[in-house]
Design a protein that fits this description.
It comes from Halalkaliarchaeum desulfuricum. Pfam families: Peptidase_S26. GO terms for molecular function: serine-type endopeptidase activity. The chain is an alpha+beta fold and 385 residues long. The protein is built from 9 helices and 17 strands. It has 3 domains: 99 residues, Umud Fragment, subunit A (Ribbon), CATH 2.10.109.10; 115 residues, no CATH class; 102 residues, Immunoglobulins (Immunoglobulin-like, Sandwich). α1 runs parallel beside α6 and α6 packs antiparallel against α8.
């Protein structure tokens, strides 16, 4: 492969990864590499539709004043992911404000932001956020189109399984597998020849197609591990009296609360439960949940001596049981994200290897006579329209 062709393939794959990461991040409710803002609360730093590099909270280090964070808000615009700047760090948590807002979020109804609510930090150099103009605008349009296709397929097939964040991954994965399988079964070795002929005409190799298929599988697996997990909040009341309500606790004492851990999927999962704030204990902290069953853990919520309402957080992490439990546990002890990365690598490598055996890799020959510069300008123009 010559240098120009290598750069062309790299650009195509990079563009695909960027778009898929943004769409997947929106569907999963968890920024993946990149994110964007939809409102003007962060102007002039981030205009509506601008994108930015989202560094996961567990990798970004200690949050400081001036950092722009992505967090799960409770009250802002009805709750959900919000991107605002930290204007003060207190013992209770972070005081936040949109750059365009005259008052802090906590001057309104939003409680102080706790570490358990922060999911990412915007990448900054020299105190300035790295901005990707208009990237979010294009992705929101693409996301709307994907959701329309999901709804139409779900209505036609009479199933809700194709809706939601996992649904889009299922649809893409199923279509890709069916296309490759049909081509191979119908034409056998001739299918490989047909595939190579198509890739010569389109300028895309079978290797690239297999990489895209592996990427779709990774998104599916990531959705299965991230969507049902996350951080859950419990609001307790430290009271002067005993109560039958497990979240109304006599001050200075503790109450036990059942925590349901279901698995609606076909693949068993390893589940870790972590106290994410003071006043929380969980037993057991690890459990194995089989296919389409559920188990129950016990939370112990402690009330401080001072009366009032308090928030308690528990973080749940899930990993598909495609690796032995001791391997998962060893990786988890090193870093909670490491099992997810290794699992995705194993799945992607497996689908790529099987696809290569069945379909071959083809040869990359670019027969497209259109100047590459014109094609790239068209791609960039579509992002800004």
């Amino acid at each position: 492969m010559d240098l120009k062709r290598a750069l062309s393939v790299t650009l195509q794959l990079t563009l695909a990864v960027v778009v898929i990461a943004l769409v997947a991040g929106q569907l999963l409710g968890q920024p993946i590499l990149l994110s964007f803002v939809e409102t003007g609360s962060m102007e002039p730093t981030l205009e509506p539709g601008d994108g930015f590099v989202a560094v996961p909270a567990e990798l970004s280090g200690e949050i400081q004043q001036g950092d722009v964070i992505v967090f799960h808000a409770e009250e802002i615009q009805g709750g959900g992911l919000t991107t605002h700047r930290v204007v003060e760090v207190t013992e209770q948590g972070y005081i936040t404000r949109g750059d365009a807002n005259p008052f802090t979020d906590q001057d309104g109804d939003e409680p102080v932001v706790r570490d358990a609510q922060v999911v990412a930090t915007a990448l900054q150099f020299g105190g300035s956020v790295v901005v990707i103009p208009h990237l979010g605008t294009a992705v929101m349009g693409l996301q709307a189109g994907l959701e329309t296709v999901q709804r139409q397929l779900a209505a036609a097939l009479g199933t809700r399984a194709l809706l939601g964040p996992q649904g889009i991954a299922y649809v893409l994965f199923a279509l890709s597998v069916l296309a490759y399988a049909a081509d191979y079964l119908l034409f056998g070795s001739a299918g490989k020849k047909r595939l190579r002929e198509r890739t010569r005409n389109t300028g895309t190799s079978a290797r690239t197609l297999l990489l895209v298929l592996a990427l779709v599988l990774v998104i599916t697996a990531t959705a299965a591990m991230i969507v049902p997990a996350g951080t859950e909040q419990f609001t307790i009341v430290s009271a002067e009296f005993e109560s039958e309500n497990p979240t109304v606790i006599e001050r200075g004492t503790a109450s036990e609360l059942p925590y349901l851990v279901p698995n609606a999927g076909l693949v068993p999962v390893h589940v870790y439960l972590e106290p994410a704030s003071e006043g929380v204990a969980v037993e057991p902290e690890y459990t194995y949940v089989g296919s389409r069953v559920e188990t129950t853990a016990t939370l112990t919520l402690s009330a401080p001596e001072e009366t009032g309402a308090y928030r308690r957080f528990v973080t749940e992490r899930r990993y598909l049981a495609v690796l032995p439990a001791p391997v998962i546990d060893t990786l988890y002890r090193i870093h909670p994200w490491l099992p997810l990365v290794v699992i995705n690598a194993v799945l992607a490598g497996g689908i790529y290897g099987v696809g290569r055996l069945l379909l071959g890799t083809g040869r990359i020959r670019d027969r497209n006579r259109k100047p590459r510069g014109r094609r790239y300008r068209r791609i960039l123009r579509s992002l800004y329209e």
